[in-house]
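Q: I'm a student working through a structural biology exercise. My instructor gave each of us a protein and asked us to get a predicted structure, then write a short paragraph describing it. Mine is non-specific serine/threonine protein kinase. I'm not confident about reading structure output yet, so if you can add a plain explanation after the tokens, that would really help. Here is the sequence I was given:
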Amino acid sequence: MFFSVFHLERTMPPSKAQKDSTFSSRQTQSENWSKAYLSSKVDTSSSNNLKAFSFNDLKTATKNFRSDSLLGEGGFGCVFKGWIDENTFAPSKPGTGVVVAIKKLKTESSQGHREWLTEVNYLGELRHENLVKLIGYCSESENRLLVYEFMPKGSLENHLFRKGVQPIPWNTRMRIAVDVARGLSFLHNLDANIIYRDMKASNILLDSDFNAKLSDFGLARAGPTGDNTHVSTRVVGTRGYAAPEYVATGFDLSIT
Ligand SMILES: Nc1ncnc2c1ncn2[C@@H]1O[C@H](COP(=O)(O)OP(=O)(O)OP(=O)(O)O)[C@@H](O)[C@H]1O
Ligand SMILES: [Mg+2]
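A: Happy to help. First, here is the predicted structure for non-specific serine/threonine protein kinase. I'll explain a few features afterward.
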């Protein structure tokens, strides 16, 4: 982990084109995935803590997904800033209630639907100070959205690589590395041994005091349990970030 953060400081992140070619089922899934995931239901037993938003509510909360609400864009879609009432979660006027970050999946992304579902099912259950909080989701016809707590300082990637940004002091970098390690350790120590599988600076989000939280659980999976010390898996992650030995072998992940 420490290696990753300091290594990332000296190497440029993958280009947008490389990011878009994030390997995993992003490569080859047929349209069947899309149909299957569109019809798949959220596991409500694990999403009890989550609010099911209507598409209209999220449209209102983001001023119709207006470009001046845009916080950023990733491989699966855009992230918008929105406002909701802290008690009722109804959309509220900008400047009132609480700020949230709303990720809107591109409707044509079949892998996006699959990862959306994984994210809801994992983050709907997991709560830790170093994991970003998922507040709710929207699943209405082909629309898939996720509503998160707003992280005012955005992603670590922006602080490391954006032109003209103020460099983060080394003690803050150390704190971020420790926060991320805590988040991963929490996942690895759960009964399900959750493996995160998408470790990169853009998935590390920062609050107003530079406390760091992991985001994006779409590629997470349950790890080995009991006497099974290995799990077989197809190789997933983002080019340029995954460990070379994992990319080369593609079969075994182990937690020791
Ligand atoms: N909860 C949040 N609070 C504030 N900003 C956020 C939040 N979530 C995402 N963002 C912003 O939106 C940007 C895009 O995030 P997203 O997770 O969609 O893509 P990414 O991580 O950059 O790329 P990839 O699709 O490869 O994971 C982030 O870099 C960040 O600046
Ligand atoms: Mg991300």
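A: Here are two points you could use in your paragraph. The longest strand covers residues 77-84. Residues 170-189 form the longest helix (20 residues). It's a good idea to check both against the output above yourself.
Q: Great, thank you!
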